[in-house]
Amino acid sequence: MTYNFNPGPAMLPPEVMQQAQSEFCDYNDLGCGIVELSHRSGEFDAVRERAEQNIRELASLADNTAVLFLQGGASLQFAMVPMNLLTSGATADYVDTGPWSSKAIKEAGLIGHVRVIAGGKETGYTAIPDSAAWELDDAAAYLHITSNNTIAGTQYSVWPSIPDAVPLICDMSSDIFSRDIDFNRFGLIYAGAQKNLGPSGVTVVLIRKELADRVPDSVPGILRYTTHIEGKSVYNTPSTFGIYMVAMVTDWMKRQGGLGAIERINDQKKKTLYDLIDADDFYRGTADPGSRSKMNVCFRLADEELEKIFLAESAAAGFMGLKGHRSVGGMRASIYNAMPLDGVVSLADFMREFRRRNG
Ligand SMILES: *Cc1c(COP(=O)(O)O)cnc(C)c1O
């Protein structure tokens, strides 16, 4: 048995993988695969529509929010957000909770005025800063946050309260649809699909439509949200395979009972690993307890030699992808929605046994 703890692209629900395999060459008895059809065909349109409706349903999205399937990853959104929403003379507020936030800040700084109002760089990004202390600009074009920090293993558990006039923009790449939250409090949410929603190659954007109208005249059509809202995500050829997989992953989420049910399982998975880590000093969690992520559990051992042994032995035992991000080292168990509780319990058993032998 192999359990895949890769951080992204990451494991997908096995039943979705099997369904994709079974209909890859012959979709709906058409005599060809869905990837061999036009993005403007009725068959593909039904798939895209299903993916959109599933997302609307799972997130209880308000009607004035558009669901877009774009390309270029979350990284293109680092640029598209300020290009469309940071109009000249305005300032955007950003919170720097990890390397992905920093990249978003860097891109926005090329477009307009940016203020970093809080962060955690000095302390190695081990905690989400307390939003009560933030000095928010009431006139900011928007406030940008990163809900889950994939590399440091931290996650917001409470959202900052901000003035109504300031849209909250969130990079949710690594925790979208992993918990039951109020999606309508955000002006714009974006997520590369490859952690919780599907394969790489498609980015889901949820945008309140009136925000899209801010776009300055100088922005090229392909980079405007308005273009993709009007074009229903087929202005140009999208990742048809990616959208098809998102439709199936969101079907699966609905079969699980929706986001509340998914969150309950994710909470059990999180508790299983952190309880073990906290039991004694053998494993050391790197994130502050109040900021710990349900999606990426980062931990260290006494020294790097022992970590090397842990990584080699865990890989040999079938636990794939536990190496921490190259910028921080250590270990990281990425336990997105598709990772079953069984996989996490098996990993905890392995970790207990490893501790017994090396503690
Ligand atoms: C993975 C990740 C990204 C990068 O996504 P790309 O699709 O590779 O551009 C950005 N933000 C967060 C929080 C991520 O986890």
Notes on the protein architecture:
There is one protein chain. The protein has a 7-stranded mixed sheet, sandwiched between helices. Strands 11-12-14 form a 3-stranded antiparallel sheet. The chain has a two-stranded parallel sheet with strand order 1-13. Helix 1 (14-22) packs across helix 7. Helix content is 37%, strand content 16%. It folds into 2 domains: 14-256, Aspartate Aminotransferase, domain 2; 258-358, Aspartate Aminotransferase, domain 1 (Alpha-Beta Complex), CATH 3.90.1150.10. The relative contact order is 0.17. With 359 residues, the chain is α/β, with parallel strands linked by helices. The structure holds pyridoxal-5'-phosphate. The site of pyridoxal-5'-phosphate has 11 residues, from helix 3.
Relative strand content: 15-25%
CATH fold category name of the largest domain: Aspartate Aminotransferase, domain 2
Helical residues, percent: 25-40%
Computed structural class: alpha/beta
Question: In whole angstroms, how far apart are the ends?
Answer: 26 Å
| Inertia-based shape | globular
Which radius of gyration do the C-alpha atoms yield? Answer: 21 Å
Mean of pLDDT: 97
Q: What is the CATH superfamily of the largest domain?
A: Type I PLP-dependent aspartate aminotransferase-like (Major domain)
CATH architecture label of the largest domain: 3-Layer(aba) Sandwich
Please give the largest β-sheet: 7 strands, mixed
Annotation, overall tally of beta strands: 14
Ions, cofactors and other ligands present here are: pyridoxal-5'-phosphate
Number of helices: 10
Unreliable stretches (pLDDT < 50, length at least 5) are none
